[in-house]
Design brief:
Length: 174
């Protein structure tokens, strides 16, 4: 799969092995998503330039035709929070085959500035972390979105990577 992120707040999941390659389109409530995603157990995390973290259930989608016909299947609340419906209509009209559409099931707005990095823990997929320009490293429970730990640094955080062999996180500081 190839994941692309647009300045219009959309993540496109492409299956590069098939002709009609767009498989799913995820719409954010923000106009711009920072290019950082992490996936575990069909949960995708994205970070947005306004400091919001979005959680997406890749199993919970609706077809393009269901969306056009108003069959939102549990997405009514997410769609009511969505501010840029013009970009959905414009994109849908350009693609002449069916694909799946989704909206985030949870938004976390704890960071006050850009979240530069998000990542699932490799040895516990119910935990993910976020690092941002606001100088905070935060560790979250992905099921409840409860904040488990936060550490403030003296400088902005740019990237984070979990060590796959030991319980450590590698950070790049600014």
């Amino acid at each position: 799969y190839l994941y692309s992120v647009g300045a219009d707040g959309k993540i496109v999941i492409n299956n590069v092995k098939i002709k009609n390659h767009i498989e799913k389109v995820l719409y954010s409530s923000c106009n711009s998503i920072f290019i950082q995603i992490s996936i575990s157990n069909n949960i995708l995390i994205s970070s947005e330039v306004n400091g919001t973290i979005s959680l997406w259930d890749l199993n919970k989608t609706i077809s393009k035709h269901e969306f056009i016909n108003g069959n939102y299947l549990g997405f009514s609340k997410a769609i009511s929070n969505f501010k840029n419906t013009d970009c959905i209509d414009a994109f849908i009209s350009k693609v002449n085959y069916d694909f799946r559409i989704s909206f985030p099931y949870k938004l976390i707005s704890r960071h006050k500035e850009v979240v530069r990095s998000v990542s699932f823990c490799p040895w516990n997929d119910k935990i993910f972390s976020s690092a941002g320009i606001d100088k905070y490293l935060r560790i979250w429970d992905s099921k409840t979105t409860m904040l488990l730990k936060e550490i403030k640094f003296n400088t902005p955080l740019y990237t984070l990577n979990w060590n796959t062999y030991r319980e450590e996180i590698l950070l790049t500081l600014g």
